[in-house]
Hints:
- This protein has 122 residues and is of the alpha+beta class.
- The chain has one domain (3-116): 3-Layer(aba) Sandwich (Trna Endonuclease, Chain: A, domain 1).
- The chain has two helices and five strands, in the order αβββαββ.
- It has helices spanning 3-21, 70-86, and strands spanning 25-33, 36-44, 47-56, 92-102, 107-116.
- It starts with a helix and ends in a 6-residue tail after the last strand.
- The mean pLDDT is 90.
Amino acid sequence: MAAHNDFGVQGEEIAVDFLRRKGYIIVDRNWHSGHKEIDIVARQADLLVFVEVKARANAFYGNPEDAVTRRKMHLLVLAADAYLRYNAIDMEVRFDVVTVTGTIDKPCIKHYESAFRPGIGI
Length: 122
């Protein structure tokens, strides 16, 4: 596996640990619907949170949050809809983004709660 892929996988692990420390319950990871993927599905009280994780070792290719494009948001909303239907879930949802930069030993983590809403900003 390429080094950037390794960092991405490790970045997701860091994001999961970070969310758990904040009291989130991790419900699912790397859930697929066709070519669409949800990195993390978590619960926070009575809220289901769909989390997109972006990890970058450096800013050579730009800030990780910039990679969450309108298209990516749209695909995440479609995947979330499929997830809710597939699991017959009727809950309030939120879309978050967690970015991980730096090194595995000293990551810089940013959590953007309510990073976007379906139909708004997409």
